[in-house]
Amino acid sequence: xxxxxxxxxxxxxxxxxxxxxxxxxxxxxxxxxxxxxxxxxxxxxxxxxxxxxxxxxxxxxxxxxxxxxxxxxxxxxxxxxxxxxxxxxxxxxxxxxxxxxxxxxxxxxxxxxxxxxxxxxxxxxxxxxxxxxxxxxxxxxxxxxxxxxxxxxxxxxxxxxxxxxxxxxxxxxxxx
Length: 176
What we know:
mainly alpha, elongated
């Protein structure tokens, strides 16, 4: 969520301050709530996520950028492709609960639900692909294979005199 606030402050904040709010002929405010000009309502107020104003589109764009950032953050945090969908769904589920508590009601805009579903799918699919590509990388071996063989210095076919076990102290292990 911090990435969303950071993204909004960097890219959208100067634009939102300069944009004049739209009013209809009766003088009623038709754009997003005036509170959307602050950072916290941009993240938590579902009414700010709309497709009817420039501010709403900037917030939707910031959600998409945040979804991509979250997908790249899944690689070092989660590391397993199987866990990506669970983590993303949990993160967006927690956001849904906190946004509902902040707004004192369930979100009622279609743009909010469409944006959240799109961001969940984008984060989960991109995150799984990135984690899977990391899982499929070859594991580097420090020594070349020629140095790893032979494993013992005993001639082939002969058993070592101490029963085939090595003592952790460097000597031969006693037979039991």
